[in-house]
Amino acid sequence: MALFQISNEKITIQVDSMGAELKSLKSVPDNREYMWHGDPAYWGRTSPVLFPIVGGLKDGQYRVDGTSYSMGQHGFARDREFQLKSQVASEIWFSLSSDEETLKKYPYPFQLEIGYELTGRTVTVKWRVTNQGETPVWFSIGGHPGFLCPIDPGTDQTQYRLSFDAKEKIVASCIAGGLVSGEKKTYPLRNGVLPITEDLFDEDALVIEGDQAHSVSLERPDGKSYLTVDFDAPLFGVWSPPKKKAPFICIEPWYGRCDRLDFAGDFKEREWVQELAEGTFEASYRITIA
Length: 290
Description:
Blueprint: E1 3-7, E2 11-16, E3 21-27, E4 61-64, E5 67-70, E6 83-88, E7 91-97, H1 100-105, E8 110-119, E9 122-131, E10 137-139, E11 141-142, E12 146-148, E13 161-164, E14 169-176, E15 179-188, E16 193-195, E17 206-208, E18 215-219, E19 225-231, E20 235-239, E21 248-255, E22 274-276, E23 280-289
Antiparallel strand pairs: 1-2, 2-3, 4-5, 6-7, 7-8, 8-9, 9-23, 10-22, 11-21, 12-21, 13-16, 13-18, 14-15, 14-17, 17-20, 18-19, 19-23, 20-21
């Protein structure tokens, strides 16, 4: 594993080759850090990529053409060493290819590329999934970046707010035992804003499906945004460890999610799963600091 750094005049990021994980995002003028630092007392990661599944599987298993496979939550890419593919002043790319070990867990030949590009005060996180076989590849992919909240000394997380580009409400799918229960919970918004209460994440992540929003900001107690995540993904999660008062919040664009409690189908029948018959799937999301 190795740590790589790229910068422009506004921001600096560091990326670990293990999982091609974004580990740091700092403002150059004041050296302020925006990423969670991965304290295992709360959550030992910072911004893992979720591939080839997002979330958990029913009974930890899935089926492809009648054969059962086992895989842990969020897949295996986050725990694999990526190879540096290219690096220039403001952009860096890493790659991971299927091998004998991955094919035991996931029977599809693939190449996964993860890139980071800096533009002003924005880092664009880029994904490419290439089908390296002769039959369709089925997969999910997602981000899991954790951001400091509170970010200012002397403030409490419950003074902060989430701001969505939806105005009236957000409807979240409820989670039970790491899987979608089938129940929904509605969170009313006032001008797109949801207060961060002490119990907001007591029942696990807010799983928000169906293109309800494509921009989520963290706002200081004075109502000013200090970080925004923009994405095209059809669903996303908002999470902090339940009942831990953890000083960070994750805003997670997803192309896929965990199984339902009653799911009994084939891998290709999972909700929000992506099909790649040939060629390359490309997607991205953007993190902008104020």
